[in-house]
Amino acid sequence: MLPGASNRMSWARSEKLNQFLNLSSFAEQMLVHENAIVKIRKDMPLELAALIGCGVITGYGAVVNTAKVAPGETVVVIGCGGVGMAAINGAQIAGAGRIIAVDTNPAKLQLATKLGATDIVDPRNGDVVQQVRDLTNGGVHHSFEVLGRKETAEQAFAMLAPGGTATIVGMIPFGQKIELHGFDFLRERKIQGSSMGSNHFRVDMPRLVEFYMRGRLHLEDWISAKLKLSEINEGFAAMKAGKTVRSVIVFDA
User: Which terminus of the chain is more exposed, N or C, with fewer CB under 10 A?
Assistant: First the structure.
């Protein structure tokens, strides 16, 4: 059970929270291996640094480390949650010439433009692949799927220009298969995965802190709410409903 939570818990009712990648848990204290620790500058706000360790480094790293987006290239990001926003901001930092944000939430699309998106696409306005291809006169150099869905992974590949690369960041359910047209590979299109942004943690974490301190990484815009640990279930409900980008749990001093 989570400390301080009531017996009405809907996500962790009478169950143990297991670690993921030897780290995660919602707790006031945790024991971690020294290899999972990196030193950052003392003037970095910790509630913002907490965002970097997973969501930001995953989205940014997918763009910079996995896909190696070059200045002037075109990018589309499918899904404007926390990781998608990091990919958008990362593409801006990488110098992408055009950054297209795809989502059905108008508020998130508006935030995406603040973080670096040059164009927005709402799938409810028609064929999302055709919308992107029309905007780019034939497709993008890089597409990033951050929703973890079969159909959007297939769309990410279909949006590519010849020679383009689709990077799947979202966690597609185990056992789910995606289908691609074999002919499209004759145009040297590629598809690849990315895990935790292919990060080099002790290099990327201090670098992202510096980007924030210099005003290039807009971490404040990620935070939709600050919660107490006892409010965690409300935070999960808001996240599941798509109402937040990221919520931060703040412990009393």
Answer: C
